[in-house]
Here is the input.
Amino acid sequence: MDTVMTPAATHGVGLRTALRDDLDAKAEELRSAGYTLLPSGLSAHELAGLRERMEAIYRTQVDEVGGPQALARCNDLDVARCPLAYDEAFIGVAANASLIALVQRLLGENIVLLQQNGLFNRPQAQHFQTHWHRDLSYQHWTSSEPLAINALLTLDDFTLENGATHVLPGSHLRAEFPSEHYIEKFATPMVAPAGTFLVLDAMLYHRAGAAPWPVCGR
Here is the structure.
């Protein structure tokens, strides 16, 4: 790692985690808290292009299914499905070198992309993703190793004011959904600048925030 830290004083400790580099530190954060933040390395120009491309893909899909009412009936309003099938720029997002390196630390060398979606957090709109959920839905058990990883790329800044994604730290380690008390006390907004991957254990409970003005993210 770039920064050398003085080992914490301990008593009765026989095992402790050793980190080789910053990626190991990110992996440790995700294993324990269920999430971490990872810079994508994308420039402001590249992010602006991705925002425009995502909007264009969504408009195409709305036309393909017969209008926004059709999407609303299946809770898919403001969701662009599989953008990489429409624009190769999103293959580059999925294959981001920093992201792949981190995921391989967690899941091993052989990984498969399950899905890719684009989410639009519109002002004053109730998005279906504001419900607390796991990306592996209906699962109420835990595992000692991550089963899948979710990476959300912020195409705009995620702030408290514009609807940052919220997480429930440690909830990937519990079979049941946490109590209202836990949610009230520990729900954490993922504040991050544009171009950041919010990397989550797929069993971590999370939700989209409410946005008073337009924000586009993955």
Observations:
- The two ends are 29 Å apart (CA to CA).
- Residues 213-218 have pLDDT under 50 and may be disordered.
- The chain has six helices and nine strands.
- Residues 160 and 191 are 7 Å apart (CA to CA).
